[in-house]
Design goal:
Layout lengths: L3 H7 L2 H13 L5 H13 L2 H6 L21
Length: 72
């Protein structure tokens, strides 16, 4: 990515408003760090991972060592 526009366009639409707000409030000296963070966020693949439903079919909350008891 070469420009701020490239970074912004690589973000999901719902994240752009957060990027814009942070960009507007970031001081010039802190701009490189802020942009690096957003580049990392836009390229880390985490959102795609979550949207790919990696936990589908898993049940949460139970423990494997809990004894199964019949309540009948």
């Amino acid at each position: 990515m070469r420009t701020i526009r490239d970074i912004r366009e690589s973000l999901p639409e719902d994240q752009r408003k957060h990027f814009d707000a942070e960009l507007a409030d970031t001081e010039i000296e802190a701009l490189p760090e802020m942009l690096n963070r957003w580049v990392t966020l836009s390229n880390d693949g985490f959102e795609a991972f979550l949207l790919s439903r990696p936990f589908e079919g898993m049940e949460f909350g139970g423990r494997s060592y809990d004894e199964q008891t019949d309540t009948e």
